[in-house]
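Hey, I was hoping to borrow your eyes for a little while. A protein chain has come my way and I'm curious about its shape. Take your time with it, there's no hurry, and the full record follows here:
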Amino acid sequence: MSHHLDTPLAAKTGQLYLDDLYVFPGDDSTVFMMDVNSNVNGLHTEPGFHPEARYEFKVHLDGAEYETLTYRVSFGEPDSAGRQAMRLHALTGDQALEDSAAGELVVEGRTGEAASADGTRIWAGRIGDSFYIDLSLLGIVNEAVAHGTAPDLSAWQPARAENSFANTTVDSIVLEISHQHAQLRPGARTGTWAATKLATDAGGWRQINRAGHPMMWPIFWPDDTDFADPANARHPSEDVSAAGKYLADHIAAVVAASGTSDEPQGYGNTVARRLLPDVLPYVVGTPATYGFAAFNGRTMADNAPEAMLSLVTNTAVPSGLSPSVAEHLRDSEFPYVVPE
């Protein structure tokens, strides 16, 4: 549930803090992509990926409460050129839940270079960030959600919107799985989340951060500057009991103040059920789209901030930005990103 601007702590250890998660169709394949380590706050200090961390894509099948596929990516220390060794392991069944499980080594490679084996391709490195939003708009909605008031959009001028993430960069992991995969064939109903985990002194692993739906943290927990909320450390199966009422009540208050629903609490409950557990749904082999009407994966072009801000307030919140503002940062061919 992280985002680009988490906290001063995130600025110091951005290698562990997730900025975005994407799931979309590739070339007869499904693409999983996570971004970390944004420099948007101007305090990006540690390049590359943390050599003592794990970066994991967790995949639930057919609405299951727990993941049955985990793709685990790990990195070595950077060499003199800043390149890092990279390893991809796949864990299936009960092993997908276990930090202690080794899994199967699928691919080995280096950052900045594509690596592939048996219907799997992976690339990791620094890219131009294709995420786009004018943060002044987010501030307006933040104010409303925090205080249970109607968002004051009277001064918002979409025609003057500027992309606050223009010319920023992130470290990205792009994983592509062929439709020939036994469990990720066209028609499979999936739910995906990403997690970063750090080795502990005791020999185990501690979950540092996770991401599913976009914009969750900046909308609902923007002032958690000490990063104390337990949402990042828990499993999505705990989300409804831990945060369902919190989300529903905050959304209901905004909607009630705005007069955009005759049953604000009912609307809040409905939205909370859509967003929790915090996993990104996607039907393999179908066009991906993340919009107000439907969530089915997420492409780099999707205007996810506009969709989420509109959903939370139950009214159209125009971002003033279109996918074209970051078109130059997307590619139609693997690895689908534009390396720095």
Q: What stands out?
A: Residues 239-258 form the longest helix (20 residues). The mean pLDDT is 93. Residues 8-329 form one domain.
